[in-house]
């Protein structure tokens, strides 16, 4: 897929106010600081389409980007960031949960996992939530540049093994680095394929 346009449409904290266009939508979610916004910029080949920060908790709203006038990409706040006050955290969870439950256009969710980390309860719980709500998802391993190739392979293999303790089969997985562009082609090809598969439903 060639990216011909990528425009920021709106930010909000209420799914009912999200764009009304009937276009297939892809959401990016994961722990704070895992690299959601960076991955979006890497995919779109734009430096600061989505806002990035070294400090966790940068993205605080549901951000819609319209791509090629054909599909939406959604940057979401991270979960599991302890420094955000408890009250705020509850609100985050509520509007994120609502987004996933209510957004009919959502065709696939990308759950981002830092390649260096072992499986963590919060991510496994989130995947469980998606499964229970019949929301299709893929796993995206991020920051692949931070590990040497043998350590990286070992880490990914053991992550998948652990997942198979909870799931009968593995979802699609992607290995990415926003620093090197690793995984960009496969990722965009995947989205292209899903867009074609769902085209009938969006007519
Ligand atoms: N080396 C390396 N650093 C990365 C990569 N992706 C993200 N980072 C860095 O990780 C930090 C967090 O990146 P963000 O893209 O803001 O992460 P986020 O998941 O959107 O974070 P929140 O919006 O706070 O939830 C930044 O300092 C990025 O530069 C990557 O692939 N490789
Ligand atoms: Mg972000």
Automatic annotation (TrEMBL):
Necessary for normal cell division and for the maintenance of normal septation. SUPFAM superfamilies: P-loop containing nucleoside triphosphate hydrolases (SSF52540). The keyword rRNA-binding does not apply. The gene is engB. Residues 22-197 form the EngB-type G domain. GO terms for biological process: division septum assembly. This is Probable GTP-binding protein EngB. NCBIfam families: GTPase_YsxC. Its cofactor is Mg(2+). Belongs to the TRAFAC class TrmE-Era-EngA-EngB-Septin-like GTPase superfamily. EngB GTPase family. Gene3D superfamilies: P-loop containing nucleotide triphosphate hydrolases. One of its GO terms (molecular function) is GTP binding. It comes from Polaribacter aestuariivivens. InterPro entries: G_ENGB_dom, GTP-bd, GTP-bd_ribosome_bio_YsxC, P-loop_NTPase. It holds the Pfam family MMR_HSR1. Coiled coil: none annotated. Keywords: Cell cycle, Cell division, GTP-binding, Magnesium, Metal-binding, Nucleotide-binding, Septation.
């Amino acid at each position: 897929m060639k990216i011909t346009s990528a425009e920021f449409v709106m930010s909000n904290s209420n799914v009912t106010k999200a764009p009304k266009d009937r276009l297939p939508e892809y959401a990016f979610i994961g722990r704070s600081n895992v690299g959601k916004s960076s991955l979006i910029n890497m995919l779109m080949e734009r430096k600061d389409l989505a806002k990035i920060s070294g400090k966790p908790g940068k993205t605080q709203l549901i951000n819609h980007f319209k791509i090629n006038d054909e599909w939406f990409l959604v940057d979401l706040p991270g979960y599991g960031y302890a420094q955000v006050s408890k009250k705020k955290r509850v609100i985050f969870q509520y509007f994120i949960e609502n987004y996933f439950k209510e957004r009919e256009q959502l065709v696939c969710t990308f759950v981002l996992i830092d390649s260096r980390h072992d499986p963590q309860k919060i991510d496994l719980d989130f995947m469980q939530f998606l499964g229970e709500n019949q929301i299709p998802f893929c796993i995206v391993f991020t920051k692949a540049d931070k590990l040497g190739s043998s350590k990286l392979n070992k880490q990914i293999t053991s992550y998948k093994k652990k997942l198979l303790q909870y799931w009968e089969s593995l979802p699609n997985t992607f290995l990415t680095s926003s620093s090197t562009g690793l995984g960009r082609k496969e990722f965009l090809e995947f989205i292209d394929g899903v867009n074609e598969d769902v085209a009938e439903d969006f007519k």
